[in-house]
Structures are given as structure tokens and as C-alpha cells.
Write a structure and sequence with these properties.
By secondary structure, the chain is α/β, with parallel strands linked by helices. It is built from ten helices and 13 strands. About 40% of the residues lie in helices and about 15% in strands.
């Protein structure tokens, strides 16, 4: 059986539903957002043994964490408990029960000085979130022989109801706001459906080790903003160029965390959804909803 920890969240819900559609023996957990069919689990406070005792779990996909850099910087102690202490307790339980962890990590483990990062490139996080992810990565590598660590860049969706950075920007533009987007923040934006598909592929093929997973759409925040402006027809003056150092906590955000997914792509020949395709689809959907 597979368990998805954090199956009510954005990425976790797509992973859970994809595995469910492929008929895997499966369960998942939620914390604050009740979801029918999922098990209530607060990883900070609940007794894992009590919650999971009736499940014969073989693989655990760990999606539950706080990822907001600004929140974590402002409330270091609170989020250290969520992102580190509670995760280690989970992992210790999985180790005891011989459960294979599939840990969702982040491009924030890199300092952003180079970009196009491969799995073995130097990890040197600038912010607390990246340091927390790195601490859990190191814990897994030192405690497990059979594990998966999947590092992601920014993840988005082509559904307007999904809250992610693309839909946040679009909704802000619809509200008449100006987007101040950094020209020096470069990412590899990746569709959440691709993430869900790839997690299933890695599980199905019993892969282990570390994978950097992203599309080849390496681009700056500002360039993504230009695509949104173009496809949606928003006034160009609603988009302003800035640099990271001009925004709050900008010094803690790595400049170029584009990922190199050659290891995965070379082995599985997977074709990623493009961000152009997604923004175009969203523009048609959201414009139709206005009519």
C-alpha cells in the first residue's frame, strides 16, 4: 500500500488522484482541509502509530510541509517543527516499519549562482526553507538504503481554481494590480500533472535515489509575466521589471534555480507540458467564464 502524506494539498492531491486512477492500493492524509476518503493526520501532534496502525504501508510519499519562504523566515521556530522535527519523526517511523520514503524536495537547496542544476551539484541553500529541505534530504540518505528524493522547481496548474503562482498572478492582474516581477529570478516551471505522472513512473519502476524533475521551460519571473500579459491581453503597464534585491526577503531567494532533468528524461523519454500551452488554455477558460 502507498500512503500520500499531505494528499489534500496542491501537489499531494494530484499525486493521490493519479495513483488512485491507476488502481494502486492507496490511502492519503489531510490535516486542516477535510477531504472525503482521506485519513486525518496532524504530523506535529497526532500519534503516528495510532493513526497508521491499520495500514500495511510499503511506500510513503511525503508532501506535507510549509513552503512559503517569507512565512518561514518570520516564524522560524514554528515551521522548523513542521518541516524538520515532525518530518524526522515520520521518517523514523517509516524506517522502523521498513517503509520506502518518497520525499518531495525543492530547488531552494541550491544557491542559484549557476542554474541548470544536476542531482550531484553542490547544495548551498540561502534561506531557511532550503536548509530545512536539505536537512531532511541528509537525514533520509543517512538512514535509508531504499528511498526517493524528488526535487521540484515552481509547480503550476492549468485549472483556474487551483491556487499556485500562475493563477495568483492572473487573479492579481484581473483585480487591476501591477505585477512587480524579477528579471533575475530564473526557474523551471513545471505542470503539476507532470509531477504526478513522474512520481507514479518512479514508483512503478521501483526507482531509488535522487531526481531533479522539471520542464525545460527555464525562464525568469518577468518572462512568465510577459506571456500572461500577452495571452490574456492585459495592459503592458500592469507588468513592471524589478530585481530580487528590491523586494522583501529578496536576498534570501536564489537567482537561478533552473533544474536539469537529463537523468530522468534520458531514462524514461518523458515529454513535459509547456508553460505556453498552459497559459493559453487558462486564458481561454478564464475569458469564457467572464462571458
Amino acid at each position: 500500500m502507498i500512503i500520500v502524506i499531505g494528499a489534500s494539498g496542491f501537489i499531494g492531491s494530484y499525486i493521490y488522484e493519479n495513483l488512485k486512477s491507476k488502481k494502486y492500493k492507496l490511502t492519503g492524509t489531510y490535516n486542516s482541509h477535510y477531504t472525503n476518503g482521506l485519513v486525518k493526520l496532524n504530523i506535529e501532534n497526532d500519534n503516528l502509530r495510532d493513526v497508521l496502525k491499520n495500514y500495511n504501508i510499503k511506500i510513503a510519499v511525503i508532501c506535507a510541509s510549509e513552503s512559503s519562504i517569507s512565512k518561514i523566515e518570520n516564524e522560524k521556530n514554528n515551521f522548523h517543527n513542521v518541516n524538520v522535527n515532525s518530518q524526522k519523526q515520520l521518517l523514523e517511523y517509516f524506517k522502523e516499519k521498513n517503509i520506502k520514503p518518497v520525499f518531495i524536495s525543492s530547488d531552494n537547496i541550491y544557491d542559484g549562482n549557476e542554474g541548470d542544476y544536476c542531482e550531484d551539484d553542490k547544495r548551498n541553500p540561502l534561506n531557511i526553507y532550503g536548509k530545512q529541505k536539505l536537512e531532511i534530504e541528509n537525514f533520509i540518505v543517512s538512514h535509508f538504503n531504499n528511498f526517493l528524493i524528488v526535487r521540484l522547481s515552481k509547480v503550476y496548474s492549468s485549472k483556474s481554481e487551483n491556487k499556485n503562482f500562475i493563477t495568483d498572478w492572473i487573479n492579481s492582474l484581473y483585480s487591476g494590480n501591477t505585477l512587480n516581477l524579477a528579471t533575475d529570478r530564473v526557474i523551471s516551471p513545471t505542470h503539476v500533472i507532470d509531477i504526478a505522472n513522474i512520481i507514479e513512473i518512479l514508483i512503478k519502476n521501483d526507482e531509488s535515489g535522487i531526481y531533479n524533475i522539471s520542464s525545460s521551460d527555464n525562464m525568469s519571473y518577468f518572462d512568465i509575466g510577459k506571456k500572461i500579459i500577452s495571452y490574456f491581453g492585459f495592459p503592458t503597464e500592469q507588468l513592471k521589471k524589478v530585481t530580487l534585491l528590491s523586494i522583501k526577503h529578496g536576498e534570501l531567494i536564489p537567482k537561478n534555480t533552473s533544474l536539469n532533468s537529463f537523468k530522468f528524461k534520458n531514462k524514461f523519454q518523458y515529454n513535459f507540458i509547456s508553460i505556453d500551452e498552459t497559459i493559453k488554455k487558462l486564458s481561454k477558460e478564464m475569458k469564457n467564464n467572464e462571458i
